[in-house]
Amino acid sequence: MDILFSSLAAGVLFGMTLGLVALGLTIIFGVMDIINFAHGEFLMIGMYTGLLTAQATGVDPLFTLPVAAVVGFLLGVACYMGFIKYLLRGPMIAQLLGTFGLMLFLRNLALLIFGANDRAVHYGILVGKSFDIGMGIIIPATKLATAGLSLVAFAAVWLLMNRTKIGKALTATALNPQGARYMGIPTERMNALAWGIGGASVTIAGALIVNFWSVNPYIGLLFTMLAFAIVALGGFGSVPGAFFAGIVVGLITEIPGFWDFMTYTFDVDWMADVPMTSFKYMWVYVAYFVIMVVRPRGLFGWKH
Amino acid sequence: MEALKNALDFSDFPRLDLVIASAVGILFVCFPLFPHSAFSMATMIQFFIFSLYGMGWNTIGGYGGQVDLGKAQYVGIGAYTTAVMLIRWDIPFWFSMPIGVILSVTWSFIIGYPLFRLRGHYFAIATIATSLVLKDLFEVWDFVGAARGLEISPIKYAPPDFLRLIFREDIYYYYVIFCFFLIGILYMNWFRKSRLGFQLRAIKDNEDVAQSLGINVHWAKIKTYAIATAFVSVVGSFHACYIKNIEPEDTMSLNLSILIALMAMLGGAGSLWGPIIGAGVLIPLKSYLKEWLGASAGLVGIDLILYAIIIMIISAAEPRGIWGLVEKVRRRKLN
């Protein structure tokens, strides 16, 4: 029973963070139909920003979020203005490969600057502490704080998209760019803003994740793929979809824990021999493939 | 007979193209006879390997317009079939290669059937997922060496072994892959004028219209996907014999899938010469950048930074590739 509950808790908490990682991707896709391969690299930059700011100024890593958000916003806008704008004129294949080029560029730039070593946060008010809430559930304080802050960030983005004029303008740009332009919406600036918000939300997620995950220049790809899976599951362009799909994917990454639970509960020998931890992310990709084929719109998707 | 005549018929190209192509062809035949370094030889073999990958991708991605980012899984299936059969049961290349093709094509039908219900972006990212699932499986499967991969030790055999394709000198590999390359060009030349080739171009232009004209769109795509798969799988088998050390990371990774698509796009997708030009530019660029900047200068990653900048500039400035540029210049001359 212990394993079951702690796996559930860990899955939900990690899932909320993953949802925040995918949020930027879903906004960018929703507004301009472009798939950003460099998304995980933005996350990596967010992780480095959080880590280095904390080390340079001595503040707790949890309070570096504003810096990460500013860096992410500027990075997103710069990428759009300097590169993506020109990419949008070309066919889809050029867009895909162009963002792949951006990913290679950012990753190797980080490799050149920071080196290939793993770096991690070793101090901070929350690092190493945990709560025992009974029934065998032990929750690390960093993960709890991360999940809570990710909830706040989600709420902020949801309000921005649904309750402000800017959000309406973004939605209009997503639905019909030409029509939006006729209505006097500066679509070019809206696209840049979408990249800015997307970049900021993912670097915030990075600065949160660095509290419990060590960072190296190659970490991006795993998160890019997880984010793709979440966006596919939740629906391309859907903000609440990203949140719920994030939790689902978080639970899927805990399948090894559930497997262990089943093995102990039913005491089946062959189940113990399956190297389930090696398949940790494979189930995410399987779920992603099945969702893409069965319901390409995703669970909450509104674009087709 | 008709098919062979079609494959050998290059008459719809301008004479200048054919003169250049045959001059380059003669250069390729003579290349090993001139003094050359081992490095340039390895680069040339890589060039042939990747232009064949690119040609395979070009059938479905270039002519058909279906952006496929999962080609590496078939490289992996081909390479692993050949390596496993050679190591475990001593089955030579020429027998294991067709078996690898059969396995790859079967797998391509299994996943192609659901995949081709999707269009555009949705198709592109779903192909990535299948490739990643297969890679994760191979990384834990002990029978194929798990994450360590497999190693073909050449000591057991007596090179030059033409049946098993085990050689000590690269020159043999060079001519074997060069033959594959020529066959590949002839096949592609037949393909682009075949019924399926025309159907695909119709699908690329407008799927709904193609459907209403009586083309079985779904089946045409699956067939072409199988052809592309067979191409890639054959070269994957060759890759296993040539490299002799295969791992999931370098035969099935996303990077390889994207590199394959990049070859074709850079040269010009949907043209006969596109993938060859793309590989001819990109492969030497990549390996020489690495040789000059990566290892010797002590700056890790700077070669890949330059390479990434080149990719970014091309995809933003000339998305139809080098061949697109050539055609643009030609059209301007005509007018």
Structural class by secondary-structure content of chain B: mainly alpha
Helical amount among residues of chain A, as a percent range?
over 70%
Largest sheet of chain B: 2 strands, antiparallel
- Spans of chain B of at least 5 consecutive residues whose pLDDT stays below 50 are none
Summarize the model shown.
Chain A has 304 residues and is mainly α.
Describe this structure in words.
The complex is a heterodimer of chains A (304) and B (335). Chain A is globular, with a radius of gyration of 20 Å. With 304 residues, chain A is mainly alpha-helical. Chain A has helices at residues 2-32, 39-57, 65-87, 92-114, 141-163, 165-175, 177-182, 187-209, 220-234, 239-253, 255-266, 269-273, 282-294, and strands at 130-132, 138-140. By secondary structure, chain B is mostly helical. Helix content of chain B is 75%, strand content 1%. Chain B has one domain (2-254). The chains are: A mainly alpha (304), B mainly alpha (335). At the A-B interface, helix 3, helix 4, helix 9 and helix 13 of A face helix 6, helix 12 and helix 14 of B.
Key descriptive features of the protein:
heterodimer; A: 304 residues; mainly alpha; two-stranded antiparallel sheet; 2 strands; globular; B: 335 residues
Give the helix/strand layout:
The complex is a heterodimer of chains A (304) and B (335).
Chain A: H1 2-32, H2 39-57, H3 65-87, H4 92-114, E1 130-132, E2 138-140, H5 141-163, H6 165-175, H7 177-182, H8 187-209, H9 220-234, H10 239-253, H11 255-266, H12 269-273, H13 282-294
Chain B: H1 2-8, H2 15-30, H3 38-63, H4 72-89, H5 93-115, H6 120-140, E1 150-151, H7 170-193, H8 195-205, H9 207-212, H10 217-243, E2 245-246, H11 248-252, H12 254-267, H13 274-295, H14 302-317, H15 321-334
